[in-house]
Design goal:
- The chain has two domains: about 150 residues, Chloramphenicol acetyltransferase-like domain (Chloramphenicol Acetyltransferase); about 200 residues, Chloramphenicol Acetyltransferase.
- Helix content is about 40%, strand content about 20%.
- The chain contains 13 helices and 15 strands.
- About 5% of the residues have low confidence.
- It has a six-stranded mixed beta sheet, sandwiched between helices. A six-stranded mixed beta sheet has the order 8-15-14-11-9-10, with helices on both faces.
- It has about 450 residues and is an alpha+beta fold.
- The longest helix has about 35 residues.
- Pathway: Lipid metabolism; Glycerolipid metabolism; triacylglycerol biosynthesis.
Length: about 450
């Protein structure tokens, strides 16, 4: 039976038509030593059997149906799990260059949308694992769940058994059309059922409280508009150009210190994180003799529940403005907290799939013109709180480089044990001096962390 993409996954996949909007996630693990290669490949083999999407490719469906997942009849684990010797000078810069190239390359769409590379022989005796996954396979939190099926909590762990490999027949053309027709009929049936279920409640609410019913509908409509509203220009007078060239870098701060700053102001860790990023953006503009006020931010919000299966996309991308020009870091945290709290309570959130379905009908060039006017993207991913091991080697650092999806820069916060690790993905067309931006970002977080003193 055909497994169609959800509307949000189909939206993520369709954006590939504009390469500036690619949704590729690259992550970097630093290991304290070379892991056991057989153990590593065994874990990824098991993952591909436990989570079938790792053995599935994306195929187009007939009209009126979204793309679907289909088992790759030529699945080759050795294609997806590779190892190489670290290129000279075998240091962090060499790893970041490998990550940079991975982030810029498109996937082979005839195969499942992932691969990992073990990089051996780093100058300090360590090793690294670079993974590349399309956002249609998983969101950030889903990726952490997947990671826990790969990692061990101790260096010498028993080898888990391999379940039977999943599989399915490749559909012929008539099967595709029949599946598309069933999908369309199911969609229509769900719409009719939903309308019949909702109509009595709406009628009753309208009789009981006419004004309240009208206000509820108006507020929901306004919330949907805020979610999809067009952006006519960037908030930044500098970061306007968009290209396919990327620059990646990393930075980290103690999680306890950043959380303490946030808690002291009744805010969340994410609010202090955004305050640090916006502080860096303000400093970057000041470095170039430019002033800013509000900047356009895209921020993923997780909709994942305990009932959701491992992996998959359970997020919505919310766009809103943040006070990047605010000089005082404490005030900036408090103002950002109020903005984010309001966004997290938007009435449009339960309608994410419907909104994504509607956006799938919008021409890609129209969506691209909106997304490329977003100034920056920031994502906060709660990571693994305890030390973990892969193939007997201890994971000492973890970084995630999220896609810019048309923005000038993406800064992704991934927590690991007691550290907030930032993966910084820059479009060098928008920010042609990445080293200057990195220094400004470090200074932006320094002014936030100074509030803990």
């Amino acid at each position: 039976m055909a497994e169609f993409m959800s509307n949000s996954d189909a939206f993520t996949w369709a954006m590939e038509a504009d390469p500036r909007l690619r949704s590729t996630i690259v992550s970097l693990l630093i290991l304290d030593e070379r892991p056991d290669w057989d153990a590593v490949t065994h874990r990824f083999d098991r993952l591909s059997r436990v989570l079938p999407v790792f053995r599935q490719r994306v195929v187009a469906s007939p009209v009126l149906a979204p793309p679907r997942w289909e088992y790759d009849p030529d699945f080759d684990l050795d294609y997806h799990v590779r190892r190489i010797a670290a290129p000279p000078p075998a240091d962090t810069d060499a790893l970041l260059e490998l990550c940079r190239v991975a982030a810029m390359e498109s996937f082979d769409t005839a195969r499942p949308l992932w691969h990992v590379t073990l990089v051996d022989g780093l100058a300090d005796g360590r090793a690294a694992m670079i993974s590349k996954v399309h956002h249609a396979l998983t969101d950030g939190i889903g990726g952490i769940q997947i990671g826990m099926t790969l990692f061990d909590l101790q260096p010498e762990a028993p080898t888990p058994e391999l379940p039977d490999p999943p599989g399915g027949a490749v559909a012929d053309r008539w099967d595709e059309y029949r599946a598309a027709l069933r999908y369309g009929a199911g969609l229509l049936g769900s719409a009719v059922t939903g309308a019949l279920t909702a109509a009595p409640r709406l009628f009753y609410d309208g009789l009981r409280d006419p004004r309240g019913a009208v206000v509820e509908v108006a507020e929901t409509a306004a919330s949907v508009y805020r979610t999809v509203r067009p952006i006519s220009r960037t908030g930044s007078p500098l970061m306007k150009e968009r290209t396919l060239i990327r620059d990646l870098s990393t930075y980290s701060v103690p999680m306890a210190q950043l959380r303490a700053v946030a808690n002291a102001r009744g805010a969340a860790l994410n609010d202090a994180f955004l305050a640090g990023v916006t502080g860096g953006l303000r400093r970057y503009h000041e470095q170039h003799g430019s002033q800013i006020d509000e900047l356009h931010l895209t921020m993923p919000i997780s909709l994942r529940t305990e009932a959701d299966a491992m992996g998959g996309n359970h997020i919505t991308l919310m766009r809103f403005d943040v006070p990047a020009g605010e000089l005082d870091p404490a005030t900036r945290i408090e103002r950002i907290h109020r903005r984010v709290r309001r966004v997290r309570s938007e009435k449009s959130l339960p309608y994410t799939q419907l909104i994504a379905g509607a956006l799938n009908l919008v021409p890609r060039e129209v969506l691209g013109s909106v997304l490329t006017r977003v100034d920056f993207l920031a994502s906060d991913v709660p990571g693994i709180p305890v030390p973990v091991f892969l193939g007997g080697a201890r994971v000492v650092e973890q970084y995630a480089f999220g896609p810019t999806i048309g923005a000038a820069v993406n800064v992704t916060l991934l927590t690991y044990v007691d550290t907030c690790a930032f993966g910084i993905d820059i479009d060098v067309g928008a920010i042609p001096d990445p080293a200057v931006f990195h220094r400004c970002l470090v200074e932006g977080f320094a002014e936030v962390l100074a509030l803990a003193d």
